[in-house]
Amino acid sequence: MEVIANLFNGFTVVLSDPFNVFYLLMGIVVGALVGILPGIGSATAIAILLPLIFGKPPLTALILMCGIYFASTYCGAISAILLRIPGESNSVITMIDGHELTKQGRATEALAMSGLASFIGATIGVLLLTFLALPISRFALRFGPPEYCAVMIMALVLLAALGSDNILKGLISTVLGLMLGTIGADPAGGIFRFTFGTISLLDGINFIPLGIGMFAITDIFINTEKGLEFKVSKEGRERVKRKSLFLLIQSVISDLKLCLVPIIRASGIGFLMGILPGTGHMNATFLSYAVEKKISKHPEKFGKGAIEGVAAPEAANSASNGGAMITMLSIGVPGSKSTAMMLMALVMMGIKPGPLLMTNEPTLAWGLISSLYLANVLTLVVVMPFSAIVLSKLIAVTRYSILYPIILVVSILGAFSVKFDVFEVWQIIFFGLMGYFMEKLDLSVVSLAIALILGPLFEESLIQAMILSDSNPMIFITRPLSAIMITISAVIIASQYISFKELYHRYSRPSK
Amino acid sequence: MKRIGANDFGAIIIALIAATYLFINRKYPLMGDYTFSSGFYPMLLGILLLILTVFWFISNRKLEKKISLKQLFPDRSTMIMILILILCTSLFNVIGALLYLILLTGAIWFLYEKFSLRFSIIASVVLSVSMYVIFRYGLNVYLPKGFLPF
């Protein structure tokens, strides 16, 4: 009851000043614009707006940042679904089925489901944050380097299994991604590896140029080779022309009924993964996708336009924001780059996150939590209808020969804006070609892209675990949480070659 | 000798990449004072990739239908697109971002898509200027000027 009363007070504080709602809307608009453009992430947007935040009351500043954070998370999915340009790394998994739905003329349904799943996932995440902040943060503290390493191993194995129908090719793509992740400074000794004396490679390969190259540019090469006239298929365009607003709403409601249970499941997974600093969003999205694919009665539809393939990762991604907030507020450890920026802003304003924040600054803490709710609602109401109805129809009617140069320009500028270096533009061409050949060989570019992000984290946690255990690999087995995750990884690999169901039936039959 | 298919070619190329990676990695130390050093983890990855490509090569033998090597490479029109992209990007810092974008999009629409010169010029200028303004002045992304004053 006290929690509900505090939450109500938080809403009162936020809504009592009309400027707070204005700043929230401003944050949402800015977040939407930056989320849709590749290269400019929510962390960069918060950084750009930091000078505006100076001089404002702390709560107002946090409200602005919440708006940016939520809107950019949702809008990263828009460019991924419509144009196959992942606005952020979190959008990669959504893109797999989302873009296929666009090609089938169901972009509206995909965008609407993305918005609704984000909303429900974020609501569940924020609710869990409200009621479970302290006990969950204590659980998160039990995760040490061996547990992180084991989570990474599990994630990489899932990635290999998920990325391709052939696990061998999935593993090859994953290892290639891990190898790309070794470029730059190593976490052990700080030695620069595989940089060939190039300054631009000193801090490694950034995800944005790789993601833009391997998804957007590769798509352009393949589609122009096919001589594609429209991004959306002929049947899809007919579907878009035929469907009235009423029929669209009906379609969205029936999709929502289908996806409600997957959304709730994915939100739980997302929230738990979001608690783990640094890994949460990535692992949340493809873990939830993998679970839904495994549980689904029609797993063959995943990767070809399954609406659950959009709903689950989006719900998990949004719910993980709640988890990331827990670690930022309760133990002062940022769960992502954006929460790192928020943490920096809090410290600059003289506020110290930690276990005492809720007791020392209740107005601020509960005001922030209620801002998350409001940002969630306003993003759905303001951004989603425009993107789902207007943008999706625009994509369906625009000729591909007009569309892809626009995609190219946005991609080039987005890649350049990462480090203000033309080397990033060369990277997108290189990775575009690499992705082209990989697609022809049926090697998963998704596995490679995600392995690039997870690789450095995996290596770092592996080295820390080895230092902790005096180079004894048994630490992964002796620690219970780690042992469980390693076992799950082994089972996943084995399940690709052995049908456990068949084994059970064979050995459970009574002998004659 | 049987003709190699696209998958075999891919396996060979990736094996070469793994071998080159291991060759470059030999200069990084394997062990440090307390545990593994910079070269250990890449060494594991390189060896793993080599093993996987051997398995891939073996599994290709069992394939009933093979993709021909010719299908792996881009056709003439895609090569033209790639060439336009490479040539224009090599001029990026010289002519500046705005002219680069106009040149790139204009070349694609005129040379590759065979639109009229008038349409290509107007469309490329409108697109490039609007994107330039959004990124340069809206998002404070400092794009190279080249020989233009803006």
Name a few traits of the molecule.
heterodimer, A: 512 residues, mainly alpha, two-stranded antiparallel ribbon, B: mainly alpha, 7 helices
Protein architecture, described:
- The complex is a heterodimer of chains A (512) and B (150).
- Chain A has 512 residues and is mostly helical.
- Chain A has one domain.
- In chain A, a hairpin with a 6-residue loop joins strand 1 and strand 2 (192-193).
- In chain A, helix 6 runs parallel beside helix 13 (308-330) and helix 12 runs antiparallel to helix 13 (308-330).
- The longest helix of chain A has 36 residues, at 362-397.
- Chain A is built from 22 helices and two strands.
- Chain A is globular and about 60 Å long.
- With 150 residues, chain B is mainly α.
- Helices cover 69% and strands 0% of the residues of chain B.
- Chain B has helices at 6-25, 40-61, 69-72, 76-90, 92-95, 97-112, 117-138.
- The mean pLDDT of chain B is 86.
- At the A-B interface, helix 8, helix 9, helix 17, helix 18 and helix 19 of A face helix 1, helix 2, helix 4, helix 6 and helix 7 of B.
